[in-house]
Amino acid sequence: MGNGAGAMNFRSDNEAGVAPEIMAALVAANQGSAASYGDDAITARLGKRLAEIFEHEVWVLPLISGTAANALALASLVPPWGQVYCHEEAHIAGHECGSLEFYSGGARIAGLPSPSGKISAAQLAEVLPGGKGQVHAMQPSAVSLTQATEAGTVYGVEEVAAIGEVARGHGLALHMDGARFANALVHLGVTPAEITWKAGVDALSFGATKNGAMGAEALIFFDAERAAQCTFRRMRAGHLMSKMRFLSAQLEAYLADDLWLRNARHANAMAARLGQGLAEVPGVRLRNPVEANEVFAELPEAMIAGLQAKGFQFHRWDGPCVRLVMAFDTASADVDAFIDAARGLA
User: Fold this and answer.
1) Are 183 and 264 in contact (CB under 8 A)?
2) How many other CB atoms are there within 10 angstroms of residue 164's CB atom?
3) Element (H, E) at 173
4) Rounded Cα distance, 67 and 97, in Å
5) pLDDT by residue for the chain (346 residues), tens digit each?
6) Cα 46 from Cα 104, distance rounded (Å)
7) In the 8-state DSSP scheme, what is residue 12?
């Protein structure tokens, strides 16, 4: 099976198509009528299923985009004068057009540098309390972790728990941007509970679009009070979908029979295959460990140009580094073809 975005396309998992199981669920949800604004049976089942998966009572808000999930989550966790700490390359910091500031009424992001894409508890401890309690300063209010990170790396349970402990010690909430949560989870081999609420996470942006959905994310709260506040923010922001059953149907099918985990395992396996193959090509250096479904590799300029001339599609990251992203339907033949082409151009 070729990549849903076209053969030899490694630009983004956003460019892949829709998993057949999810498309079938959308067709099934289209039969007849159903209550609107989330009062339908599919949405009710989705909440119960996620509670089973996370081994905890959850409050679920199906949404159409990860940007909405991140911004609404954080706007519910921080005041307008709040400051959110994250990695300097986190999606919320550089790719969501100030959506946190917009939805929160003024909260600000403080990006912390790290070559791995991950911030650490020690790094966070260095900047806190950060003016907390001082009337002239933005007030440290939350931490946001991206899982898997923008560098393709994954936070371990101990890392999340340590950050959670520092955050709680200073009265900060902890949010997780899980756009590639499934990819991180299968890499770690832990339970969803262990890497979220048991490690101190208060809210999770649970991604599905990058892993086979047409367009569906779930904002999950592990606390009723915070979730209740967010329901009003969702409505005011225009993100309460009237025909919510079509979002919930995608997410229900995504979770059924572990489709979300199977899709992620395949994408991760293709990334590992590509990373291992490229590591053996003369002149190629992997910038980051391959831990999820992305490969960051530094290639000679002539090799980059040669690969593009052969029809391979990928993003230039910075300097000689390219980003190669695997999807749930990436074909092993395409991966092998990329490795062979790189070897031939070495």
Assistant:
1) yes
2) 23
3) strand 173-178
4) 9
5) 444 445 799 999 999 999 999 999 999 999 999 999 999 999 999 999 999 999 999 999 999 999 999 999 999 999 999 999 999 999 999 999 999 999 999 999 999 999 999 999 999 999 999 999 999 999 999 999 999 999 999 999 999 999 999 999 999 999 999 999 999 999 999 999 999 999 999 999 999 999 999 999 999 999 999 999 999 999 999 999 999 999 999 999 999 999 999 999 999 999 999 999 999 999 999 999 999 999 999 999 999 999 999 999 999 999 999 999 999 999 999 999 999 999 999 9
6) 28
7) -
Domain boundaries, the chain: 20-257, 259-345
Q: Which helix (H) or strand (E) is 340 found in, with range?
A: helix 332-345
Question: At 108, which helix (H) or strand (E)?
Answer: strand 108-112
Strands (E), 27-93: 59-63, 82-87
What whole-number distance in Å separates Cα of residue 62 and Cα of residue 19?
Answer: 18
Residue in the block written with tokens 């076209």: 6
Domain 259-345 fold is: Aspartate Aminotransferase, domain 1 (3.90.1150)
Residue ranges of the alpha helices (H) in 118-258? Answer: 121-127, 157-169, 181-188, 192-195, 224-236, 245-255
Rounded CA-CA distance 130/109 in Å is: 13
CA distance 65 to 99: 12
**3 state DSSP class of 187:** helix
CATH code given to domain 20-257 = 3.40.640.10
What does the alpha-carbon distance between residue 195 and residue 179 come to, in Å, rounded to a whole number?
14
